[in-house]
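Escalated from tier 1: XIL holo job.
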Amino acid sequence: MNMHHEQRMGGLSSAAAQNGLLFGTAVCTSDVLAQPLTRAILRDCSIVTPEYEMKWDAVCPNPGFPDYSAADELVSFALANALAVHGHTLWWHESVPPALRTEPEKRFREAAMDHLQATVTRYAGRLHSWDVVNEPLEPADGRADSLRETPFLSAFGPGYIETAFHQASLLDPAAILVLNEMGLEYASPAAEDKRRQMLALLEREKSRGTPIACLGIQSHLTALEQPRNHPELRTFLREVRAMGLTVMITELDVSDHLCPRDRRRRDAIVADTYRAYLDLVLEETEVLAVSTWRLSDDRTWLNGFRPRPDGAPQRPLLYDRAIRRKPAWHEVEHALSKERQPGSDEAPP
Ligand code: XIL
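Tier 2 regenerated the structure:
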């Protein structure tokens, strides 16, 4: 048993390993030297995702002068600690370097392809998986195919997803290639429409031979809004599995902005949301990895993105700001270690 294995005994990654999946979290360079958080990461995780150090605008704030030093640091930290790395993300409309947003389409095409090729080549053979394209769908943009209007769509056309995946698979045939999306988890007509549009997109890409191996479901959930019983999501996950695709939970957190201020009640509701969601997803489909979007409350992006109306800091993650395990940690541990065969109880959703 190597040092890393010993270190992880009793952690979430060993619970997940009992069912053959990975457990992990998003990390930043500031996390790798931040005891006790680093200890928690090494004890609980078997995979990490750079929260922003691998994004195009982080690597290339000045087009033509890429700087991979922060991303390299995270990859070295991970590999030195026998952690797998989930690359995030090659083509995403929100991380296009500002200077390139106004460039002519030909110039944008060249820059986007150069970035993809340089980045995949740099880490080829060292990454577990890549979010090749992130957030491709936006039904509100009004297209028949529901593709989001992005610089990638304008410059490459609707074949841009196929182009990106083919390039990535050529340059790193070992990496699992993921199409990552948000808003597929919720119980709303808009989410159900997006699930339908995602299935149609996956079918289209599959018929074109696009090498998408896995669907990334971000899973930024909201406590008191995410239902325990969610037949539409069950049906969707079964249809994804029937297409021969695996799933990764890529950015799991549970916003508590609708919860009462009382910490104990808030933590209990958040913990229950984690458990119900993971039980459902792990029952219905083949999940390769479950990753939270950071591990401790002091590091969550939600205080900026979804602040509580009462101004109290969010408590959406598995550890509190003193890096103490919360009820959510225990519920996630239960869900990960529970014995199950995806799809084994094909009861009607
Ligand atoms: C977020 C980061 O957490 C924030 O710190 C940053 O300001 C914006 O991006 N979907 C994604 C992630 O795919 O990359 C986003 O991360 C959250 C939503």
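Residues 51-52, 134, 182, 218, 251, 301 surround XIL (CB under 6 Å).
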